[in-house]
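debug: dumping io for the single-chain case to check the tokenizer round-trip. Nothing else runs in this session.
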Amino acid sequence: MSADLMLLRLLQLASPNLPVGGFTYSQGLEWAVEADWVRGAEGFRAWQREQLEDTLGHLDWPLLARLYQACRAEDAEAFARWSRFLLANRETAELRLEERQRGQALVRLLDGWQLTQAPEWRDSLALTQLGGMAWLAAHWDIPLRELALGHGFSWLEGAVMAGVKLVPFGQQMAQSLLRDLCAELPAVLDRALALPDDQLGGGLPLLAIASARHETQYTRLFRS
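debug: decoded output
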């Protein structure tokens, strides 16, 4: 596959139009705004930066690397183990449901493209979106670093667009936040890719509380 086509495939994986329902999730932000934990654009910046360091840097990106390497090595057992580890680190029922729904949606996309997976891979692929992204990236020969940065941009873009509706702030501020937070991604990725197995795992108590409270929030725009 040419470098140009790999870039286009990466943009497709990172697109908000990827049919995994990313625009329907706020990952606790909706309750955090309701509880007045997040105020204005600067409050959002601080909230998101914490998740960038903890969730992306210590959980999602290190596990994306391990899932990708398992795909490259055709090691279905390691892929299944790391998929279960990722799901177990989603701290609330709502976050675990979101992870499963995203994974199942991506598997349906793979089915539509007739990219058939062997039985030893299929159940694990349906557990997480990261697993499906790793599998497709390995299939399309997208390098790991580019995959991770594309995923990080998509994750940040979804959060910022949720912030536009919830905090709220305008489109000019949204793009400024996206620009500034994206500038932090490469350094976080460097640290994430260097983490040994015994240092993996996220843990943000306020995020877990916000997600749990969001499950019963009286009115809400987002699924999580």
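debug: round-trip ok. The mean pLDDT is 89.
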